[in-house]
C-alpha cells in the first residue's frame, strides 16, 4: 500500500489537485454564468417592465387619443347641427329680406307709377264726342309740325302732339313700304279753330252738321293726338276712303302704331268716318283690335288703366 502511494502518491496528488482545480474552475465558470444569466434576466426583466410601461403609456395615449377623437366627433356633430340651424335661420332671414325687398320694390314701383301718372295728361284717353267736354283752355303740352311730305295740302301746316309724332312717322313709312301712300288732311285744332269750323259747317249744312262735326270742346282734334287721313287719289275726307287699299291697310295695321278708328260704321255719335284716326297708345289699340271692340264702346274706367303706358 505504502509502495502504491510512494509510487503513485505524487501522481494522485497532482490528479487530485487537477480535479480540484477543474472543479473549482468549473464552479467559478458556473458562478460567472449564473451571474451573467442573473444579470441578463434582470436586464431582460427590467427591459420587459420598461416595455410594458411604454406599452401602458402608449395604451394610455391611445385611450386619450380615442377620447380626443370622440370629443372631436362630438364637437363636429354639434358644429354641423349649429351650421344646419344657422343655414335655416339664414334662409328664413333671406326670405324675409327678399319679401321685404319685394315689398319695397312694389311700393317704389307704385310710387314711380303714381308719380308718372300724376304727370300724365288725364284728358288723353277721355271720351269727348258728345260725352265729356274739353274746355277752351286745354292745349297739348307741345305740338310739332307734321312733315310736309305727309300732308295733302303742303301750303297749310298741320300739327300733332310731339309724343305722337314718332308713331305717326313709323306708320307712314311702313305703309309706304307696302305701297300705301297716306296723307294728313287735318291734325291739331284749337278750341277756337273747332268753333270756327263748326260754325262754317252749320252755315252750309244746318243742323246736319251735327252728324259729322263736333262742337268745340267735344272734338278729339283738340287733343293733338287725332288726324284725318286720306290718299292723293281721294283728295279729302270722304266716305269713299273706305273703299281704298289705304283704309284696308289701316284697319289691319294702324293698331300696331297706337291708332284706332274713332267712328266706325253704326257708331252712336257721328256718321261713319273712315278718315278719322285717334292715337290711344299701342297697348290699348292692340287690345281693342284683338277684342274686335271700338274705343267708344269700351268702359271709360277700363280705358283709364292704359293711360300710364300710352306713350311707352
Summary, kept brief:
54% of the residues lie in helices and 7% in strands.
- Unreliable spans are 1-8
3D shape: rod-shaped
- The percent range for helix content is 40-55%
Overall residue-averaged pLDDT value: 82
Descriptive report:
By secondary structure, the chain is α+β, with helices and mostly antiparallel strands. Helices cover 54% and strands 7% of the residues. It contains 6 helices and 6 strands; from the N terminus they run H-E-E-H-E-H-E-H-E-E-H-H. The chain has helices at residues 2-119, 165-177, 191-205, 245-253, 282-291, 300-304, and strands at residues 143-145, 159-161, 183-186, 226-230, 259-261, 276-279. A 4-stranded antiparallel sheet has the order 3-4-6-5. It has a two-stranded antiparallel sheet with strand order 1-2. The termini are far apart. Residues 1-8 have low confidence and may be disordered.
Question: Which helices and strands occur, and which strands form pairs?
Answer:
Elements: H1 2-119, E1 143-145, E2 159-161, H2 165-177, E3 183-186, H3 191-205, E4 226-230, H4 245-253, E5 259-261, E6 276-279, H5 282-291, H6 300-304
Antiparallel strand pairs: 1-2, 3-4, 4-6, 5-6
Overview features:
312 residues, alpha+beta, four-stranded antiparallel beta sheet, disordered N terminus
Amino acid at each position: 500500500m505504502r509502495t502504491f502511494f510512494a509510487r503513485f502518491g505524487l501522481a494522485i496528488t497532482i490528479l487530485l489537485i487537477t480535479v480540484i482545480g477543474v472543479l473549482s474552475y468549473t464552479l467559478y465558470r458556473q458562478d460567472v454564468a449564473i451571474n451573467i444569466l442573473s444579470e441578463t434576466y434582470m436586464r431582460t426583466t427590467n427591459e420587459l417592465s420598461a416595455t410594458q410601461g411604454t406599452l401602458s403609456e402608449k395604451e394610455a395615449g391611445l385611450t386619450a387619443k380615442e377620447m380626443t377623437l370622440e370629443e372631436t366627433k362630438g364637437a363636429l356633430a354639434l358644429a354641423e347641427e349649429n351650421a344646419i340651424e344657422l343655414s335655416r335661420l339664414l334662409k328664413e332671414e333671406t326670405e324675409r329680406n327678399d319679401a321685404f325687398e319685394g315689398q319695397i320694390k312694389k311700393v317704389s314701383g307704385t310710387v314711380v307709377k303714381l308719380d308718372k301718372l300724376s304727370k300724365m295728361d288725364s284728358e288723353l284717353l277721355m271720351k269727348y264726342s258728345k260725352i265729356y267736354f274739353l274746355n277752351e283752355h286745354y292745349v297739348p303740352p307741345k305740338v310739332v309740325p307734321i312733315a310736309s311730305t305727309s300732308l295733302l295740302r303742303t301750303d297749310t301746316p298741320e300739327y300733332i302732339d310731339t309724343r305722337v309724332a314718332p308713331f305717326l312717322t313709323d306708320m307712314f313709312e311702313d305703309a309706304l313700304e307696302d305701297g300705301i301712300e297716306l296723307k294728313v288732311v287735318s291734325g291739331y285744332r284749337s278750341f277756337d279753330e273747332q268753333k270756327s269750323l263748326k260754325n262754317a259747317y252749320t252755315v252750309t249744312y244746318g243742323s246736319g252738321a251735327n252728324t259729322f262735326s263736333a262742337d268745340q270742346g267735344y272734338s278729339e282734334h283738340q287733343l293733338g293726338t287725332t288726324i284725318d287721313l286720306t290718299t292723293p287719289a281721294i283728295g279729302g275726307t270722304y266716305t269713299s276712303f273706305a273703299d281704298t287699299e289705304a283704309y284696308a291697310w289701316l284697319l289691319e295695321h294702324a293698331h300696331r302704331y297706337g291708332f284706332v278708328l274713332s267712328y266706325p260704321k253704326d257708331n252712336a255719335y257721328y256718321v261713319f268716318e273712315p278718315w278719322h284716326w285717334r292715337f290711344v297708345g299701342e297697348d290699348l289699340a292692340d287690345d281693342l283690335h284683338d277684342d274686335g271692340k271700338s274705343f267708344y264702346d269700351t268702359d271709360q274706367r277700363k280705358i283709364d288703366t292704359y293711360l300710364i303706358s300710352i306713350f311707352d
